Amino acid sequence: MTFLKKAASVAAVAALAATTALTASAETTKLRIQTHYAPETVSGKLAAQYMEDIQTMSGGEIEVEMFYSSSVVKSVETFDAAATGILDCDMTGAGYQVGKNSAFQFVGDIMGGYSTPYQQLSWLYFGGGREAAAPLYNKFGMELIGWWVYGQESFASSKPIEKVADFKDWKFRSPPGMETKIFEKLGASPIVMDFTEIFTALETGIIDGADASGLANNVGLGLYDIVKYANFPGFHSMPSDHLACNKAVFDAMPESHQRIMKVAMEALALRTALTFEKKNAEAAAQLREQGVTLSQWAPEELAKFRAAAQATWPEFADTPEAKALVEAHLTYLGQLGLVSE
Predict the structure, then answer these.
(1) CATH number of the domain that residue 256 is part of
(2) Do the domain assignments include residue 17?
(3) Could you please report the per-residue DSSP string of 7-34?
(4) Same domain, 86 and 141
(5) Does the CA dihedral 72-73-75-80 come out positive or negative?
(6) 223: DSSP letter
(7) Residue 173: which of 102, 221, 112 has the closest Cα?
(8) Beta pairing class for 209-211 and 171-174
(9) In what order do the strands lie in the sheet with 293-295?
(10) Considering the entire predicted model, what is its pTM?
(11) How far are the Cα atoms of 123, 313, 323 from residue 103, in angstroms, in the given order?
(12) pLDDT of 108-131, one tens digit each?
C-alpha cells in the first residue's frame, strides 16, 4: 500500500469513526403532548408551529406525538395524564387544576391583574413568577416550561356592558372559580356552564351574556350573530395557557433539549400575543361594520373592577403556594402601577 493510499484509508476510517461517535452521542427525546385546541384554530396552528420549531432546532432529536382537541383524555385530565405517564406534557392551562390547589388560579387566570399579555409574561419571566410557580408544579410531579397568553377576553351580551353598574342582575355564563365570586360582588348573576353550551344558552335567552373568549374567538363561535354588544379591549380575564411536562421526563432530557423547549416557548408567547392582537383588531372592525356595539371602558370603571377582583384574591390565597403567588403578583403589579389603592 502506497503512502497516499494508506493515508486515504486512515482518513476514511477516522471519518467513519467520527460519524459513528456522533450518531452514538445523539440523544433522542420523544414526547407525547396534548392540547385542548383543535388543529384548525389559531391557537392550534400556533401550537403546531411550536412543535415544528423544537423539532427543527434540535435537528430532529426532539420527536413529538401531538394530540389535539383533547383526544386522549379530557382537557381537565391532561395535567394528571402527564404527571402519571399516560402523556408527557400538558399544553392546556392551569385553570383546570384549581381544585387541586387554589394557587393554580393565580397562574391560570389572575383576573383583574395585568392589562396586556406582555405585562403578564413579564411577571412570569422577570417578576418572580417562574420562581413562585415552580414549587406548585413540582409538588404534583410537573415542570412548568412556559406560558402563551392570547390577551384579554371580551364579553358577548344582549345589552350594553359599558360600566360596572351594567353588571347588576346581568345573567352570564361564567367559568367556575374566582370569577363567580368577583362578579357576584359587582351585582351580576354568574351561571357556571360548559363552554359548549354557550351558543344555545344565548340563543334561548337563558343567559344575557357570556364570558367565552377573546373577540376573534367569539366571532368564530358565532356569538355576535345572536347578541349585538361587546366590550373591546377586554379587561376582566386573560387566561394563561401553559406547557407543563412530567418532571422526571424533563429532568432526564439533555440540557440542550430543555433549553430549546423553554426558549421556543418564549417565541410562542410573543407570536401568540402578536397574532391575537392583529386578529382581535380585525374582528373589531368587522363587528362594527355589522352593527355590533363595542364599548371601551373608562379608566375609573376599570379601576372599580380591579379593586373588586384584587379584594377577592385573598379568599383564594388559602395555601402556601397561593400566598406566594399572590405576593409575587402584588409586588410586580405595584411596580407597574396596577394595584388598586
Answers:
(1) 3.40.190.170
(2) no
(3) HHHHHHHHHHHHHHHHHHH---EEEEEE
(4) yes
(5) negative
(6) G
(7) 221
(8) parallel
(9) 189-192, 171-174, 209-211, 155-157, 229-231, 293-295
(10) 0.83
(11) 16, 10, 8
(12) 999 999 989 999 999 999 999 999
Q: How far is CA 285 from CA 87, 216, 240, in A?
A: 41, 11, 26
Q: Is residue 196 part of a domain?
A: yes
Domain count, the chain: 2
What's the residue count for the chain?
Answer: 341
- Collapse the DSSP code of 277 into the 3-class scheme (helix H, G, I; strand E, B; otherwise coil) and give the result: helix
The answer as to whether 3 is a domain residue is no
Q: Taking the mean position of all CA atoms in its chain, how far away is CA 241?
A: 1
Nearest of 125, 131, 144 to residue 79 by alpha carbon: 144
For 295-333, how does the pLDDT look when each residue is reduced to its tens digit (9 = 90+)?
Answer: 999 999 999 998 999 899 999 999 999 999 999 999 999
pLDDT of residue 337: 86
**Rounded Cα–Cα distance for residues 335 and 338 (Å):** 8
Could you tell me the three cell numbers for 336? 407597574
In this structure, the answer to whether residues 117 and 47 fall within a common structural domain is yes
How far is the C-alpha of 85 from the C-alpha of 249, rounded, in Å?
9
3-state secondary structure of 318: coil
**Which residues form the domain of 311?**
155-235+292-336
Contact 152, 238 (CB under 8 A): yes
Residue 186 CB partners (closer than 8 Å, separation 6+):
164, 167, 168, 305, 308
| Residue corresponding to grid cell 413579564 | 122
Q: Are residues 184 and 93 in the same domain?
A: no
- 189, 261: one domain: no
Q: Specify the DSSP class assigned to residue 93.
A: B
